[in-house]
Write a structure and sequence with these properties.
four-stranded antiparallel sheet
Amino acid sequence: MGGELATAGPAVRISHLRVKRGRRLVLPDLSLEIPRGQVVGLLGPSGGGKTTLMRGIVGVQIVAGGTVEVLGRPAGAPDLRAKVGYMTQAPSVYADLTVTENLVYFGALLGVAKGRVAEVIDQVGLAGQAGDKIANLSGGQRSRASLAAALLGRPELLVADEPTVGLDPVLRASLWQLFRELAAQGATLLVSSHVMDEATRCDRLVLLHQGRVLADATPAGLLASTGAVSAEEAFLTLERQAPQTGPGQTGGAP
């Protein structure tokens, strides 16, 4: 496989990433660094490129140019498999299997100890539903089952795409508490959302609009630089100031 995973430097380093769909540039020229041990919020409206960026970080996105390094290795490298957890927006577990059966299966693929399955089930608050089929769970419970699968390998980087969509306020709060606990244990989390009030729960914010980074700052720094009183107001201020070329442009090199 070649090389040790880096223990210094940012968790993710992206340089001039370009992603196309047909002739449309979804990410025209994106550069970004994600520091280790923090909860980083990737915020912006639907269609702004958040999922595409996350797919690039976990190594499942075809790119037109640029580089993505994760823990010092090229994104998608085989030795990152257990080090990077990916919670997709849609549940990524099998509906006809129970919670435990799903996690035993994914755990076998990752080579984790059998006891780890019970640990993550308890960690995401599904101990009472461990023997239930995914098809019989609520939407929030299915999301937590997907999160459990992403946590099996004790990832150093957890990428979560809109994990709180459809959750009630109590479940949202418990999920963010879990994210904070994971960061306190040394993990790095990249959590996307289009809900701006979740910004206050993050250590750092990346505001994405039309495939471009409008801001990369702490919540306090973002408000100070824009004179806004909320992340939503700051985003709207930056959006008004940004060139409206967007990712709909076509053509070659930026």
